[in-house]
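Figure caption, in words: inputs first, then the predicted bound structure.
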Amino acid sequence: MIHGAPRADLSLGKDLLGLEHLSAQQIELILDTAEPFKEVSERAIKKVPALHGKTIVNLFYEASTRTRISFEFAEKRLSADTVNIAASGSSIEKGESLVDTARNLEAMRIDMVVVRHPASGAPKFLAERIPSNVINAGDGWHEHPTQGLLDLLSIRDKRGTLAGCKVCICGDILHSRVARSNIWGLLKVGAEVAVCGPRSLLPLGIEELGVHVFRRPEEAIEWADVLNVLRLQLERMVAGYIPSLGEYYRVYGITQQRLDRAPKDLLILHPGPMNRGVEIDSKVADGPHSVILHQVTNGIAIRMAILYLLAGGSPRSAQAARPAGEDRA
Ligand code: CP
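Bound structure (phosphoric acid mono(formamide)ester present):
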């Protein structure tokens, strides 16, 4: 699918904190800028010189596989210098505050910070206090904007357009930053959005965001073009939100049997990590409807696009990205 040339007069500003406050045009700018970066990862030499000389810190206060590694690959493929800091093994364990950690990094003359934090709002708090670009890699229950964007790109790849597409987000919406970024992002670009899950795992007043609510996966499957299946975030649950994992799977699990009864083909997304046999059947996760690994591949292109745009890159130049070492004049 060929998309229009990105607009050169748009920018993202200093930071990427969430999708709630981005315009549809800014979201499309990121998706369109990611398109030429997809090809960089298919080359024998997976590198372009766009961020040569920039220093980026990946500051992760929570566990991560996909997001942290994907950011690191994106940074390295753009030729930036990268440093990874995890809470475990750093002075964060000795009680150093987020701002003190960041100010010490600033003193070492960094350019960007990618931050994952268990507290909602931590990236914004940081962005208001340091001059470096700040990118939210997931904050508490609030937002996970790069995941939302890679989900949008994956849907657009497979369906050609996001406008009018019917996307149902299934499962633990209450604790999900992925759900919030998807809802805000998808509605802005003209998709129809629904949620499906037990009442105890839906935020009160979710309908006010402009989403449909389905109580049963069968109804969601009949309505949707895309299901985005979420992990049950047991680590964030302090009360008995569900009777048991077995009961949850029986009533809400996205199973092959439920898809077999669906009237049409569906795309199945999952942000990972998956709990197979809890929210999703292995046959579905690995089956023909699944685009779960395509999402992971797209994560690198989306993160390259965001890093590149925040560093002041022109979307038109991204279209002409050339291998490292080539003269870009
Ligand atoms: N999707 C996602 O955020 O996965 P990780 O927690 O492994 O980064």
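The chain is about 35% helix and 15% strand.
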